[in-house]
Amino acid sequence: MSGKSSPSNRVSDIHLAENASLSRKSSTAEELESEPSKTGFPEDKEQTTNIGVAVFRLTVASVCGVIFGIALEKTRVFEPVVIRQQMVFENFIMLKVFLAAVASGQLCFVVLAAIPKTRPYFDDAIHDFISCLREKGILTSILGPIILGIGMTMAGSCPGMILAQIGAWVPNAIFSLLGVFLGALSYGLLDPFLSRLTKPKTAYTWTHVHTSLDKPYVALALPMALLMTVIVVLIEWFWPWNKDLVSIGVSITLNLMYLYSISSTGIIVGLLQLPLVLVVKDTIGGSSSYVTIVSQWVITDKLSRTFPYLANKRSGVGNWWQVFFVSFVVLGACLSGVASDTLTTSKGPQLPVAFFGGFLLLFGARLGAGCTSGHGLSGMGLLAWLSFIAVPAMFAGGISTAFAMQATGALDQYVQHTGAV
User: Fold this and answer.
1) For the chain, what is the domain count?
2) What is the reported pTM?
3) Is residue 19 part of a domain?
4) End-to-end CA distance of the chain
């Protein structure tokens, strides 16, 4: 007999792994509940243990958020001008950070998948990510990210960066945030209708690139990570960091502060996958946190039945860890700005553009079940098929919008104060 499993057997193995993953993990809502003691310990001690684990996970998520915020502020990738210039290929800070983060995060996944003791954590991460895409298909993975990309160029931001912009005092970032909340609420209210309209009739058999090609995860993920590393090096060679800084008006006298940031921030962001997978049992993402916040009014059984999407996002450590993560991004960006004396030095989008862009950002992210962090850093790193569709669609929406705005002169219109239109 051949030692290589057939595709059908491999699918069965995947399903068995997912079932094992489910059996290993309790639901997030149950993490804060006490069950009858099976070990002889008093019930209140078990409850204390569960609460302690939840607090520890939220603490780790908060620390990761601070590091994420510092990294974004140091490299200036959060600035609206950086994001907009990336879309018209006048600045490559965003691309360098993004590819470096995907590469380093994917190397983290490779290590977790290769070590037997950490393999269950990796399996849980894959299962959790794919479970968010069960009712999504190619249509939503194209349409949602395109909408997100349009909002990304308009607001000069993305779901994870908005909080860094708040911490760094970017003008009108607060209005982008308000638009994000409205987008999250709007999608939550419309999800029952949109899901019926867009849900695939049959579930996809192949959810990952490596399973569809009948290859081990490491065999494809490791070369992909190395390839992206080479691409980052080549971009840096042909478009060095000083050109990026000049294009956004950063003084070269500050080059030492930014030199290490541009070359290492993406790596630092990607390395955050390790504590999140091992402790929080999830991967980097941020857009669903806004849904958790706006869903707190869904407290009755009738409301839960009417708005199941919002109800499912309302409680549990599995939802709230992202809220803590993105909230502490504000603190990290603020601390970094104070240390670097760069607070209030960024330009922001005009108020109406910021608000509407924020709305499109979150509505598109939820329609596509992921944002630049979820689909980009985590989904591509886990070799999820739909993420490889979603990420190009995001940039297609962003690039086309950027060139349209450039043609009308709107791309370079910024304000210096919050509230300016």
Assistant:
1) 1
2) 0.86
3) no
4) 71
